[in-house]
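Long-time lurker. I teach an intro course on protein structure, and each term I like to show students one example going from raw sequence to a predicted 3D structure in token notation. This year I'd like something fresh instead of my usual example. Would anyone be willing to generate the tokens for the chain below so I can use it in lecture? Attribution to the forum is fine with me.
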Amino acid sequence: TLQLSAFYLRQRDHSTQPELNSLIETTHSDESDASLTWLGLRVAGEIGRLTYWLDGATVGGDETVYDYVNESAGMSRLAASETRRLRGHALDLGIHWFPLAKHWPTLALSHARGSGDKNPSDDIDHSFRQTGLQDPDQEFRYYGELLRPELSNLSITTALVGFNLPGATRLTLGYHWFQQVYPTPFLRGARIEASPTGEATDIGSEFSLLLDIRKWDNLKMVLAAATFRAGNAYGQATGERATSFFAQFAYEF
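-- Reply from a regular --
Happy to contribute to a lecture. Here you go:
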């Protein structure tokens, strides 16, 4: 079977743009205002026990970025702003193999790449932006659990192995390798506070584990754990690790 689908999404930010040197409550400061349009296409299908997908998307529009300086009493001062055109693209492809026997593991391989900006000094930003509407469950499976970055100036290669366990339980083990397209001193949307140096592209790797328990009719349990090892993009912090643990219990009445 073969499926073709497309999407169109338009975002318009109508928030008031603050004036230069104006004071704003830090909790209300807006780092960017953007008016963007996404166009995307998906090709997906099945060949025997193998499923595959190929997603492509482009984004275009204008974005104003604000730079704040912290002041006293929870206030921030707008020190600078810059408006640039945005022209980015992304690609996500992968395969998923389902064995004939239920006790055999399932295997998945995927690669995603969001464009980066090679020349930050011009007035066009070629870094891709995600819509913000992506499925967080899918984000775990393909973009990692701990780092969970936005697919912008980044490539992510993922390998997954899934096991069906007794008691309606599923265990998924994942390996994720993150690499910037161009070395930059920030990683958009990442869950760790450390920033790369902008001198190398190897962000690092992550091992993740997801345990999905659906043994009971009304109760669903999800347990997740991950460990991330920093690559040489973090300079002196290369090799340092971060870990995370997550538990979710959902009861349906």
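Some talking points for your students: Helices lie at 136-143. The mean pLDDT is 88.
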